[in-house]
Amino acid sequence: MADSDAKMIHVEVAYAREDVQVIIGLDVPEGTTLEQAIQQSGILERFPEIDLEKNKVGIFSKISKRDAILREHDRVEIYRPLIADPKASRRKRAEKKA
After folding, report:
1. Dihedral in degrees, nearest 10, Cα atoms 18, 52, 57, 22
2. pLDDT along the chain (98 residues), means of 10
3. Distances from the Cα of 4 to the Cαs of 8, 78, 93, in angstroms?
């Protein structure tokens, strides 16, 4: 099957910082990987702080590998590193209340 005959699917690539959230919709050929969609979206140029070697990625809040094959209407998400341990933060809040 030639590339021009490939079935296209619609996906979204999402990234959020404290100051801005971006969701980019794009049509990609069936069989596109999570990483390919990120590359095609242009989000890496828009947010140079994203490092796919360090930032975790997922589909609909579920951590996924960059070579995962996307399906129609998947939302690819690029996650920022945590700045605080969630357990430690909860413990501090609980101690404050006590």
Report:
1. 40
2. 74 94 97 97 96 95 96 96 71 78
3. 10, 29, 56
Domain 3-97 bears CATH identifier 3.10.20.280: yes
Q: How far apart are CA 52 and CA 66, in angstroms?
A: 9
92: CB partners within 8 A, 6+ apart: none
pLDDT at position 3 is 54
Domain spans of the chain? 3-97
Check residue 21 and give its pLDDT. 95
Rounded to the nearest 10 degrees, how much is the dihedral formed by the CA atoms of 64, 66, 67, 70? Answer: 60
